[in-house]
Specification:
mainly alpha, 5 helices, rod-shaped, single chain
Length: 257
């Protein structure tokens, strides 16, 4: 009886152990099933990734081909750019030479322009001078004609001199002024001898003095003593200018032998 009880106890222990092993087996089986599911999922992902990798590889191969094509085009473009740069350098060199030539031409033109301007200025001055000479010539001609007209029938001299113009208006019997002197000097004759007679009344005696003693034409020994000339200025107010004129122009120098 005791032996039976011991056997029963052992049998119960074995059943418990068997149950425990069954539970453990079931747990392992569940884990195994879970692992298979995960494996299936991973396998599915791997297959999808493999397909995607094939697509990417194909695209990469295509991109590599396109890259080679683009690289070829880029190399050709670089060659074109290099030829363009060389051509541009050549054009720049020619342009620089052209600019230097233009600069030299500009300097030459400025020099020619300067000479032309100076020549034009000289021509203008010459033109003005010629016009002045023509005007003075016309004035002389007009004065000569007017003088001859006024002298005609007025005074009859055996010899006509340039001093006879003083017998006409506005000179004769009038006080000789700076304005009248400048008017005479603007004509074609030299009237410097009248400088000392500004302010003097141009009477018949004063004018006759110049007619008789034209110092511009006198030769040595022909001038009279200045004291003998005072008779010609009777009735004329003697000024410092008249005395200076007599001393400067009528002190006769001895002739050289």
């Amino acid at each position: 009886m005791m032996l039976l009880d011991e056997k029963e106890v052992q049998l119960n222990a074995m059943n418990e152990e068997l149950n425990a092993m069954k539970e453990e087996f079931d747990a392992v089986t569940g884990k195994l099933n879970t692992t298979e599911d995960d494996l299936h999922t991973v396998t599915t992902h791997l297959n999808r990734t493999k397909d995607e990798l094939i697509v990417v590889t194909s695209e990469l191969n295509s991109t590599q081909g396109e890259l080679q094509t683009v690289t070829g085009r880029l190399n050709r473009a670089v060659d074109v750019l290099e030829r363009t740069r060389v051509s541009l350098d050549s054009e720049t060199t020619r342009r620089n030479r052209t600019e230097e030539e233009l600069s030299r031409t500009k300097v030459s033109l400025e020099s020619v322009t300067g000479r032309c301007n100076r020549t034009e200025e000289e021509l203008q001055r010459t033109k003005v001078s010629l016009e002045s000479e023509v005007t003075r010539s016309n004035t002389c001609s007009a004065e000569l004609t007017d003088t001859k007209s006024q002298l005609k029938g007025a005074r009859k001299f055996s010899n006509i001199t340039r001093w006879d113009i003083l017998y006409t208006e506005p000179y004769f019997n009038n006080v000789f002024s700076e304005e009248l002197l400048e008017e005479l000097k603007s004509s074609c004759k030299s009237w410097d001898l009248l400088d000392e007679f500004v302010g003097v009344n141009l009477t018949d005696n004063v004018i006759d003095h110049f007619r008789k003693h034209d110092v511009n034409k006198a030769e040595c020994g022909e001038q009279r003593d200045i004291f003998d000339l005072f008779d010609e200025f009777i009735g004329v107010k003697l000024t410092r200018g008249i005395i200076k004129h007599l001393r400067s122009n009528h002190n006769d120098e001895p002739c050289d032998d």
